[in-house]
Design a protein that fits this description.
alpha/beta, Nucleotidyltransferase, domain 5, 2 domains, 5-stranded mixed sheet
Amino acid sequence: MRKVALGIDIGGTNTDIAFVDREGSCLGEDRLSTSDFPQPEVFVAALAEKVRLLERSLPEPVEVIGIGIGAPMGNINKGTIEEPADLQWKGITPLADLLREHIDLPILVTNDANAAAVGEMIYGEAKGMKNFAVITLGTGLGSGIVIDGKLLYGQDGFAGEVGHTIVRPGKTNRECGCGRYGCLETYVSATGLKRTLFKIMSDSIEPSELRDMSFNEMTSLDIAEAAERGDVLAKRAFDHTGEMLGLKLADLVAHTNPEAIFLFGGLALAKGLIMEPTQRAFHDNLLSIYRGKVKLLASGLTSKSSAVLGASALAWDQYDAGNA
C-alpha cells in the first residue's frame, strides 16, 4: 500500500487539500471555501469530511502517514492559529486539536508561507539553495524565510512576518486586519491592489473600464486583465504596488542576505505587471554590496501546488524523524 501525506493549505479565501506521495506526486486534490465558515469548529468538521471523501475517491488504497497544514499565523510549536489578519477566526484557534477530534493522525501546523518555502525548496526552483525567501501574494502577504537550509521560526514560531512590517506609519494610513495601520500587506496583496486602484480612481477623472465595478465584485485578475488591455489606471495601480514591494524586499535582503527571493500566489501570476516595477524598485533600493547577487524570481510552482506540497513535506519530515 502506497504511503502518502495529506497537505492542507488554508488561505483567506480557499483551502486546498491534496494527498501527496514521497516524490511529490498528488494522488488526489480538492478545495473548499474558507470564507464560508465563520466558526473554525464548523470549518474543521467540513474539512474532515472533505478529506474522507477525497481519500475514498483515490485510484488506489493508501496509508496516510500524517497531516501537514499551512495557515496564516500558524504556530508550529503549538499547532494553533493565532490572531490571523486574513481569516475570520479571531483569537487563538487550536487547529491541530480540533482536527484530531475527527482524524487520528500526527498533525503539524505552520505558517502558510513557510509551507510554500518548503515546497519551493524541495520541489521548485529553490532546490539546492540554503538561503532564500518566498513571498506569498494572495489575500494578504506572507513570507517564508530559509537561512542555512532551515526555516526561520524565531522564539515563538512567528518569525518572518514581512507583510506586517510598517510602510506608512500612523492612523491616517490604511487599516490592517492585524489591528495596526500602514502594514505592507494593506498595499501589496490582492486586497491591497484593489484599495490602491480605488484610491487612484477617486483622485483622477481619467477613464477606466473598472469604474463601474464595486469593490467587492472586483478581483485582482480583473485589474490585471484591464491593465493588459491598456487601462492606464489599472497599470498605475500595479506600478505603485510593485514599487512598494521592491522597496521592502530590498530591506529584506539587508536582514537576511538571501541567494534569491521567490514571488508566488495569485498576484504574482500577473507576471510582468508586478515583476517589472518590483524589479526596478528592488534594484534602486538595494545596498550596493548586494547588487547583482540576489535573484528576484517567480515561483517554479503554481500557487496552489507549492503550499500544499510544502505542507505535505513537513508531514514527511515528521514521519521520517519518528522512524529514524
